[in-house]
Amino acid sequence: MGTKGREMDIWNSLTSVCDEEKQQQQQTQMPDNPSYTRDSRDNKSIDAENKNEYILNNDQQSVVSIDANTSNLDLEIQLKPPIEPFFKKTRVTKFYIFIKTIKYFTWLIAVLMSAKVIFGLCYNYGYFSNNHKVVDNIKMPCQNLSQQWAKPLQLDHGYSESFEITIEEEPSPSPVYTQNLLTYNFGNSWGKPAKFKVVPWDNTTAYNTIYLELKTFVNGTQYDRLLHVFINNITIWRSSTVEPFNRTDIHSRSVKDITKYIKLFKNNKELEMVFQLDNIVTAKLDGVFSVELNVNYYNLTKENYDEQTTESEKFLKDVLLDHVNPYSSPDFLEPLISTQRITPLLYYPHTQIQRPYSHSLKPFIESLDPKNTIKISAEVFLNGNAAEEFWYSNVLDKYAGRFSKQGHELLGHGPMRTLNVYLTTEPPNKSLKSDKGQNPRKLIHSVIPNPTIFTGGISPPLWKPVVSIGAFDLTPILIDLTPYMNELLFNSEKEWFLEFEIASSFDTDSYKETIGENWILSGNLMAWCGDTGKHPLKYLYEIDSNQNSMFKVKAKDDEPDELEQRVESNSSLLTVHRIQYKDTEYFLNTKFHNLLINTQVYKKYGDHQSNHILLVTGTEFEVIDTETDQIVFLGSDDSNWALETTINTIEVDESASELTYKSNISLNYKRNVSLLSCDSEDNVNLYNLQATQIGDSVYTLSPSSNYGSGNSIHSVEVDRTWPWQRKYNRVVIVKDNKAIVDVRT
């Protein structure tokens, strides 16, 4: 993935590290996919849930006493001065929130846990497990990669783990079966994914939930890398690796609930699996990723797990809940990217003229029975890469070269990106995009994707051992095609296409909507089957569709060494459908809304930078009785992503080819999904989740090895009531990249 170009451009002019990677990329003729670097000298975080006293760090002899029977935390922390690294003299900033007294720490925890930030799913964190019950049913890969297949990772608990605090936790009952899928070393693996066959556990009635478990290990110098997991060309997980720095060992562990794809395991005797992790190893980029991938099978019942909501078709509320259920497993799956070279990934824009990507729905529709199909949708995995990794901090094109003479090359195309999805009966247009008015496209979805800060993003020490929100689980964007199902299924004489475009502006008269290189896109088409005659909810036809957008830009550039840029983008898409529930008809109004406010300030020719981003996105719907015009139900899925960063260059040592900079960051993410019955005022909160990450770091880019340290505070609060009940709170405090406090309630 990409680096923070504003700092790395100086470093790249002083050293040839990146040149070696670029030469090797050209030899492989693969798309450019650079990345980052990070630190790892820390100890295991401590689970303070059911215990009273811990030695948190043996080298610093820090002691924390916790009374689990009270609501307050009694802590006594004694820290020795940090030991200077043996390889370089490092500038280590003071821990900006240093805990001196019991009262101060109690106040700190109270503030963190009471901040109302709503997210989406849950968390995961735990020790590495070597519970490998099955390892003998893996077939050799389709290509000769046997030298890279490795033994199962024997992970020393003395090492620290990198983890994502917001990843959904594993179920509390132990798995009924564990199966090792892959143990592999990714060295020079660019364009060479691991391909292998797996025989799923044949006791299909013994499980109803499945989780993937991913463990990684890396040492040396390397960028962070994207990774993709495919089953029968179906994308089931997009994640990323940690980025090592300070030349120390880094382990990571993550899990992914893939119950939505459980029918792939139950309906196939053999699975074609692909694990893609494009990595390049050179003399200076010597990090090799050791990977272990397992699948855990669970049998969750009312006796061993929180009672799940039972499916019901007695009330419209239950039908609407089932309609948005993210765990409902589809009966048919088809990859969204059919023009694949190695794996079903698309690098967008895939042509210089940036035409939208078009996918024919004909094969998918022909595989469906109109009398037996009750729901269809698409899911899109996408993220910015290379010049688009930090799209939310890009400047307008005219400012891209403003500070290039001083070594700060700003990236262009502005700080807004939106994914637009269209339905059309026209084949892919061979003319320029300016001719799109001749193409009768129907806009059915529009969303600004949530940014992802990978472990090398901004400053690598900010994300160790707790990685940024979303770095280990890049969740897909769901696009509901059910409202258009009648048009798709009962107009067989027409060939329908789904078109995807990523644009950077709504004001095409003043600003180009083009983007840089590149975005990585994959996804799936999904269909659910059932008796349409008995299914109580039917979409009859579309009544209206309306789109509004606003794009404003303000800039102050009168001083040659300064720049202030503010971009505000606001858009909405409203669709109105007539639906029928049993014998009653309703109007269904669905509104997609996106708000982005971005302010960037540069001083001293880019040596001092600050970026403030507010992103509010969501989907709202209302169900209206056609006879009374009364609102029956209100629903929403809203998220809020806010980021504040400052980056200050401290020193540029040209003789040593080193650049040192200081970073501060505050990241907040909120998500709320709810359904309100207006008649009974019955409010169903599907889930509320809030997460906060605050940190500072000092980092040095050096041709010998990048190094630095960081301090950070991370908190998450989850309250889920559907499809099961769960509450979870956690706070992790990190000093010098070591988790000194880890409290879960």
From TrEMBL:
This is Peptide N-acetyl-beta-D-glucosaminyl asparaginase amidase A N-terminal domain-containing protein. The chain crosses the membrane at residues 104-128. Residues 21-43 are annotated as: Disordered. The keyword Nuclease does not apply. InterPro entries: PNGase_A, PNGaseA_N. Residues 176-535 form the Peptide N-acetyl-beta-D-glucosaminyl asparaginase amidase A N-terminal domain. Keywords: Membrane, Transmembrane, Transmembrane helix.
